[in-house]
Design brief:
mainly alpha, 7 helices
């Protein structure tokens, strides 16, 4: 359906732009060539557009943290996904996944040792 196509397009656009800390709902509207009200209607079930963008950023951060071959620090990963402030990133990460970024990385590294 049309809604899932829009969500897929939005996910791609968010992933392409997530490194920019200024990327938000207004930029997503513009890049999808969609009115703000229409975009917000499509994302109501995700808790809103901003929540969707943040969740995509956090999912990418988790993927980078779990990448056993990754050499980036947690601060660098946070910056890579658009968070300037490390404490804001850590709080959002814990809210989303129930653990800190360093705990997620430790679990991934422990999994590779066994």
């Amino acid at each position: 359906p049309l809604s899932s196509t829009i969500i897929e397009r939005a996910t791609r656009v968010v992933r392409q732009n997530m490194a920019s800390p200024d990327f938000g709902p207004d930029q997503l509207c513009r890049l999808l060539a969609m009115s703000r009200s229409k975009l917000y209607r499509h994302f109501e079930k995700f808790g809103g557009v901003a929540a969707f963008i943040q969740r995509e950023r956090l999912r990418e951060a988790l993927a980078q943290l779990e990448d056993r071959g990754a050499i980036h620090s947690i601060h660098q990963i946070a910056a890579n996904v658009g968070f300037h402030d490390h404490s804001t990133f850590s709080r959002a990460f814990r809210r989303e996944f129930g653990s800190s970024p360093s705990e997620a990385r430790e679990r991934a590294l422990a999994g590779s040792a066994g």
